[in-house]
Amino acid sequence: MIRGIRGAATVKANETEAIHKTTRDLLKDVAEKNQIQPEDIVSVLISVTPDLNAAFPAKGMRMLDGWTYVPVMCTTEIPVPEALEKCIRVMVTAQTDRNQKEIQHIYHGDAKKLRPDLIK
Asked: What does UniProt give as the signal peptide span (predicted)?
């Protein structure tokens, strides 16, 4: 089965290393908590809020062991007024034997506010 796994995290500053590290930490957690390997991943969609433009988060993902060939696309979130700032969101599409209720969606930092109902 192919499932979508959501994740989001906030960064303190619009800085290259912060964006890369936050992306790496988020994707490592998504993979570990859902017991998936890079070879299981169909693709990754990463979005950032408009206030994050110092770096491509995909470069942070590429720094992870085994993630070189994982297809990835970056985009900007819709600039909704009052939306959470400095936020990186991911949608990981992966092959897994888990059913939808077993998928662990990952939220770090202030992004925990986005979907408190999904945090386990």
From this structure: none
